[in-house]
Specification:
alpha/beta, five-stranded mixed β-sheet, two-stranded antiparallel sheet, about 45% helix, flat
Length: about 300
C-alpha cells in the first residue's frame, strides 16, 4: 500500500562511532525521501553520506568504538578522508527541509544522535544555523511492530506453543512457560547439518552463544566490554574505548573512582579483579631478575658503556 502523504516523509538511519549520544558521532547517514505525487506512485530519492567523526573541542578525528566497528564494519581509516558533518550540514539540512521523519528504532537513538550533531555545529561552527528536529513528526516503525506484535512471554507462548498459559507474571508459571517456549523454538527451527544448517542446535553451549554471545561484556551492566580477542575495554565515560590495562597504566585512580561510585557491585568486582591482576603483574615484573640486555643498558646509561 502506498503511503498517503501531505508532505515528504524522510526515512533515515545512521551508523556511529558508538552508542553514547553525548560523546559519539555519526560516520554514515542515509536518507530515503518519499515524495508525494498526484494520482500515482510516490517518488523515491536516496542520499547517503560517509562522514569523518569530529571532536570539535580537541580538533581531531574521533576514534571508532571496537564494538561499533564490529557491527557496521567501518574503520577509522575508512572515514579519515571523508567530509566532516559540519562540511555537509547545509546539504543535509536542505535535504531534510519540509520533511517529516521515519525510521526503525530511530526515536530512541538515531534521532537524538542526529540532533546532537546539529547542536555541535551550532555550538562550535555556525551559531546561526537553523534546524530544529522537534518541529518534525517522527514515525518509528519498530514501535508500531512491537505494539502490533507484542514481544513478551505471553505472546511467545501463544506463537510457539499454540496457547496462552495461566498465572502469567507469577514466577513459577513464567518459568515453566519459558521452558515450554524454548522447546517450542527447537521444534519450529530444527537443525540438520545437511537440510537445515541455519536451524537451532539442541545444545546448551550453542544456544547460549546464539542468544547472548553477540554482546561480549565482562560485567552484567555492560560497563566493561570485550574485544574479539577478549581484551577488556571501558564502554562508558571519559576512557571509553580504552583497554582496562591502558587505563590502569595512565590513570590508576580511575579504578578507585569506580569502586566508590554509583556502579553495580558486579561491575566494581570486575574492576577490582583486573586491578589486582595488573598490580600483581607489575610487582612480578619489578621483582624479576634483570636481563643481560637491560643490565648492559644501565651500564651504558651511567658510564658511557665503560665499566671503569
Amino acid at each position: 500500500m502506498e503511503l498517503q502523504l501531505k508532505r515528504p516523509l524522510l526515512f533515515f538511519d545512521i551508523e556511529s562511532t558508538g552508542l553514547n549520544i553525548s560523546s559519539d558521532s555519526i560516520v554514515e547517514l542515509s536518507f530515503v525521501k518519499i515524495l508525494p505525487t498526484e494520482g500515482g506512485a510516490n517518488e523515491t530519492v536516496i542520499k547517503t553520506w560517509r562522514l569523518c567523526p569530529w571532536d570539535y573541542e580537541n580538533g581531531c578525528q574521533k576514534k571508532m568504538d571496537p564494538g561499533a566497528q564490529k557491527v557496521h564494519g567501518i574503520s577509522d581509516d575508512d572515514v579519515k578522508d571523508c567530509p566532516k558533518f559540519q562540511d555537509v550540514v547545509a546539504d543535509i539540512g536542505q535535504f531534510m527541509a519540509d520533511c517529516d521523519l521515519a525510521g526503525f528504532n530511530s526515536a530512541k537513538f538515531d534521532l537524538p544522535m542526529l540532533a546532537e550533531e546539529f547542536e555541535r555545529v551550532r555550538t562550535y561552527c555556525h551559531k546561526n544555523f537553523k534546524m530544529d528536529l522537534h518541529d518534525k513528526k517522527m514515525v518509528d516503525v519498530q514501535n508500531i511492530f512491537h505494539q502490533r506484535e507484542p514481544r513478551n512471554l505471553k505472546a511467545a507462548h501463544i506463537f510457539y506453543c499454540g496457547c496462552d498459559f495461566e498465572g502469567a507474571h507469577g514466577a513459577e508459571a513464567d518459568t515453566v512457560a519459558t521452558y515450554e517456549v524454548l522447546k517450542g523454538q527447537l521444534d519450529r527451527y530444527p537443525y540438520d547439518k545437511e537440510t537445515s544448517p541455519d536451524g537451532l542446535q539442541n545444545d546448551v553451549d550453542w544456544l547460549a552463544q546464539y542468544s547472548t554471545g553477540a554482546r561480549k561484556v565482562l560485567d552484567y551492566a555492560g560497563r566493561i566490554s570485550l574485544t574479539a580477542d577478549d581484551v577488556p575495554f571501558v564502554n562508558f565515560g571519559k576512557h571509553k574505548g580504552k583497554t582496562l590495562r591502558q587505563v590502569w597504566e595512565e590513570d590508576p585512580s580511575y579504578f578507585d573512582w569506580v569502586d566508590k561510585g554509583d556502579f553495580t557491585l558486579d561491575t566494581k568486582r570486575q574492576f577490582a579483579k583486573l586491578k589486582e591482576q595488573y598490580k600483581a603483574e607489575k610487582e612480578a615484573k619489578s621483582n624479576s631478575p634483570a636481563s643481560d640486555e637491560a643490565l648492559q643498558g644501565l651500564v651504558g646509561k651511567f658510564n658511557g658503556g665503560k665499566l671503569f
